[in-house]
Amino acid sequence: MTEWKTRTKLVHSGSRRSQYGEMSEAIFLTQGFVYESAEEAEARFIEAGPDEFIYARYGNPTVRMFEERMAAIEGTEDAFATASGMAAVNGALTALLKAGDHVVAARALFGSCLYVLEILGRFGVEVTLVDGTDLDQWRAAMRDGTRAVFLESVSNPTLEVIDVKSVAEIAHEKGATVIVDNVFATPTFSKAVALGADVVVYSATKHIDGSGRCLGGVVCGTKNYIRKVLEPYLKHTGAALSPFNAWVMLKGMETLDLRVRTQAANAQAIAETLSGHAKLSRVIYPGLPGHPQHRIAMDQMGAGGTVVTLEVAGGQEGAFRFLNALEIVMISNNLGDAKSIITHPATTTHQRLPAEQKVLLGITPGLVRLSVGIEDIGDLLADLRKALDAV
């Protein structure tokens, strides 16, 4: 199994079948499990075997298939599934940190991630935010007591690409754990573990599901981290992924590589076509040679990803005219879907950030985030051009 290529792993890794030999993975829709004897129950609570389960908050056969498949494609020893991507982020950080610890994080983070760091600060964890693209700032922020670093490998929504390998080297010199939110890189283009990440976090809600159906998250890492650090926290605090959602994620993974490669090819074509458009102040896409971290993106992912960020002329009014004129591309705050989705971060996903922080992060009134789907590229380009004519 370890020699299988990614697409094979996405279809087969972690599969377990009941006595009925079902083709599709079974949904074990159960809260608890029955023991043959009191002695068996006692033994399982002391140490459950690899195919033994106690309670759905601790683990479930369907959920375990998803975890094992994610670990297989990410290249980690183990994984733990959660109810949402933010449950994964919160668990990965909170399970590791305690009062008096120090964490260094990139300042360009999703608003909810920044909120989790704020909560940690209330409980005595010291947080230092840095420009994630500036290695000198990472070096200056690190200290002997730094417990962890946290970053989005590609930031939301301005698509800054962080040099994961260099940041990991800086962090490991101080003994810090490197936690990478890898949603925009996707499991298809991920090389996070090879680059030095210790823990990789995904919102499975995005590309892994890929069809706008379910919430889910997953944390990938070493067996020691997953089982000794993360699992005790998550199983007692209740961020369990439902078996049904795990089954949906397993089905999504079967086409993940095909979808994401098509999305990235469409995104590249859109970025190249719209660059220099009179109605756009900027086109931000790591796959463009003019992107500040283009070379890092190519080294780390081999592609520019599935998201293109556009700055529409005319500020918020221009952006709203553009969004409202679209027919194929839909307005929604999700991303990573097979359908193309667009949002206006300043008034939606990043609305609650203070104005000065939006300026610092480059989230301007005219900025829109386009998550590119698998539709025909000709149709998508026609829709975008027509909408830009309305600006």
Task: List descriptors.
391 residues, alpha/beta, Aspartate Aminotransferase, domain 1, 7-stranded mixed β-sheet, 5-stranded mixed β-sheet, 16 helices, globular
Give a description of the structure.
By secondary structure, the protein is an alpha/beta fold. It folds into 2 domains: 6-254, Aspartate Aminotransferase, domain 2; 256-389, Aspartate Aminotransferase, domain 1 (Alpha-Beta Complex). It contains 16 helices and 12 strands. Strands 1-7-6-5-4-2-3 form a 7-stranded mixed β-sheet, with helices on both faces. The protein has a 5-stranded mixed β-sheet with strand order 8-9-12-11-10. α4 packs parallel to α5 and α12 (256-274) runs parallel beside α16. The mean pLDDT is 96.
Element layout with pairings:
Layout: H1 6-12, H2 38-46, H3 61-74, E1 78-82, H4 85-94, E2 102-106, H5 111-122, E3 126-130, H6 135-141, E4 146-152, H7 164-173, E5 177-181, H8 186-189, H9 192-195, E6 199-203, E7 217-221, H10 223-237, H11 243-254, H12 256-274, E8 280-284, H13 294-300, E9 307-312, H14 315-325, E10 330-331, E11 341-343, H15 355-361, E12 367-371, H16 377-389
Parallel strand pairs: 2-3, 2-4, 4-5, 5-6, 10-11
Antiparallel strand pairs: 1-7, 6-7, 8-9, 9-12, 11-12
Helix pairs in contact: 1-3, 1-11, 3-11, 4-5, 12-16, 14-16
Largest sheet: 7 strands, mixed
Question: How many E-type strands?
Answer: 12
Determine the CATH superfamily of the largest domain: Type I PLP-dependent aspartate aminotransferase-like (Major domain)
What's the helix-strand series? Answer: HHHEHEHEHEHEHHEEHHHEHEHEEHEH
Instruction: Give the rounded overall mean pLDDT.
Output: 96
What proportion strand?
5-15%
Shape: globular
Second-tier CATH architecture of the largest domain: 3-Layer(aba) Sandwich
Largest sheet strand order? 1-7-6-5-4-2-3
Instruction: Assign a percent range to the helix content.
Output: 40-55%
